[in-house]
Give the backbone structure.
Amino acid sequence: MRITRKLVGVGVLALMTGCSTLSSLNPFSSKDKTNEPAKLEELKATMAVRTAWKLDIGKARGYQFSPALAGNTLVVASADGDIARVEALDGRAMWRIKTGSNLTAGVGTDGNVIVVGGAKGVLMAFDMDGKALWKSQLSSEILSSPAVGEGVVVARSIDNRIVGIDARTGETKWTVQRPSPPLTLRNAPGMVVHDRDVIVAQPAGKLTSFLLATGAPRWEVEVGVARGATELERVTDIGGAPVIFESDVCAVSYQGRVSCFDLASGSPRWNRDLSSEVGVAVDQRFVFAADDRGALHAFARDTGTSVWKNDKLAFRGLSTPLSYGRAVAVGDYQGYIHFLSREDGVFLARAALDGSAISGTPLVAGSNLIFQTQNGTVAAIAVE
């Protein structure tokens, strides 16, 4: 975990002057035996999973890079500045480029433009053939993947300044400066485009819907409510990206709650106490969330009632979960992907990648589940 006072390093809390951050990719310090990761029990698989294809895009170097879907293709990026577009079915490379700059966030795309966050707050855009289009300088470091829709690129810098940029020209259309608490997680709170709105996760547990055209806020809600006497106890930043499913938008916060809201109005549907640094998965019946102690929870999507909890992966630094078919999949800090039954949380299968943490948000591409690790492996896992 990293906290920003407006903590650098992995798994270490370090306060600095100004604003401060707290961050984690490793679930425990090597000197701390209190919360050692659970050992994996031998598993007799009852569901067949296999690696359909994989590629090496390059290391994430502590940042969170997530694959992005563009039609039948995927766009992936690395901290070393590589971007590649590949066929989602078989991983065949269409092209691969070097941006000439280190990257800190990505990928955002609407199928017309590809956008990534570069070093020192530089936002870079490319066309779907990998040709550079424009660069735009933001006010500070970019950790969240940009969002693209309606011809607008939305980017958020670590000082919680949100900008809307013309996707064609790179010109700034609007800027919104939102307040930040004294301490924030050094994570990548996500954004998601829906019709003419963009829903932005922010520090202090805020979830805000902005108009893409103007940046005007439509509604704002609290996913996490600050509690406690100290600044550290009151950190309630949203983990991962909000998820839209039908008429709901759901999210989870650190030291806060997992909540679902009405997408049109922001009216609360339900909330339950939970602490998480990663995002949620949502399907027709359930909302899945991995808490910061390594338990995976399933809640009824309509009421928020707890359906099951599996705590056999304690302190294994779980990723954002992913629902597919009869399973929910979740990665851990050693690059294992665990498949559990959607209905009761029983283990169904396990797959191993490259031994490094799965920290980005996985996605479904056709019949494949796509994961990206810190060491740079992008893998398509087929569920049979």
